[in-house]
């Protein structure tokens, strides 16, 4: 069985495809500033996820699982405003949301996705 890696670096790949399933690395916002809120960071991340899913032959209607990490669980509703506006109705994945210390203080959200490939 073939394993295909996308946007591979020395430490990790942004996506790995194996056996009809895409595994996306945890995504954080590209555009972060001290005053950027969780909703804005979430929208930025979801746009990245759309692009990554497209590059591997999938899309948000093929989501299987999502894990969302919040630096502060009190921002759960703010993150969900962005998520609810993005996720495809009738195609919601299994999902977990947890509070975690992220890689840097500028990051307020990180999202990891598993999705099916193809039709």
Automatic annotation (TrEMBL):
> Which Gene3D superfamilies does the record cross-reference, listed alphabetically?
RutC-like
Task: Read off the InterPro entries from this record.
Answer: RidA_CS, RutC-like_sf, YjgF/YER057c/UK114, YoaB-like
Per the UniProt record, which residue ranges are transmembrane?
A: none
Q: Which family does it belong to?
A: Belongs to the RutC family.
| Matching PANTHER family | PTHR47328, RUTC FAMILY PROTEIN YOAB
- What name has this protein been given in UniProt? RidA family protein
